[in-house]
Amino acid sequence: DKMCTGCRGAMFYFLKVLDDQGKLDQIKDFTFVLGEQASLPEIDKEKTILVGVCTERYKGLGRYVPGCPPLSSTVITELLQTETKQIYASK
């Protein structure tokens, strides 16, 4: 609700890439935090991905992915702890 269109688009693309690669089920236990938040709920630091510069202030409370907006491939790399191919065109 408080994320910009840049992060919204990056996350949409990130989810599309994972779905196209058959890896979408690997993120079902993760929490993604985007946009400006007043505070964060009690969450598992290893299963929390802080996306974009608006979440930088919470760096110690999860796995931080910088960028404004961040690249989808960077989010995937942080999430899966492995490099993945960026897909630039879809059907």
Q: How many separate helices?
A: 2
Q: Taking Cα atoms only, what radius of gyration do you get, to the nearest Å?
A: 13 Å
Structural class: alpha/beta
- Tell me the span between the first and last alpha carbons: 28 Å
Query: Beta-strand level of the residues, as a percent range?
Result: 5-15%
- List the helices and strands in order: HEEEH
* Biggest beta sheet attributes: 3 strands, parallel
Globally, the shape reads globular
Low-confidence stretches: 83-91
Q: Going across the major beta sheet, what is the strand order?
A: 1-2-3
The helix content is 25-40%
Count the strands?
3
Overall mean pLDDT score? 81
Can you tag this structure with a few keywords?
disordered C terminus; 91 residues; 2 helices; single chain; alpha/beta; 3-stranded parallel sheet; 12% strand
Q: What do you see in this structure?
A:
With 91 residues, the chain is of the alpha/beta class. The chain has two helices and three strands, in the order H-E-E-E-H. It has helices spanning 5-20, 72-80, and strands at 31-34, 48-51, 63-65. A three-stranded parallel beta sheet has the order 1-2-3, with helices on one face. Helix 1 (5-20) packs across helix 2. The longest helix is centred in the N-terminal third of the chain and has 16 residues, at 5-20. The chain is globular. The termini are far apart. Residues 83-91 have low confidence and may be disordered.
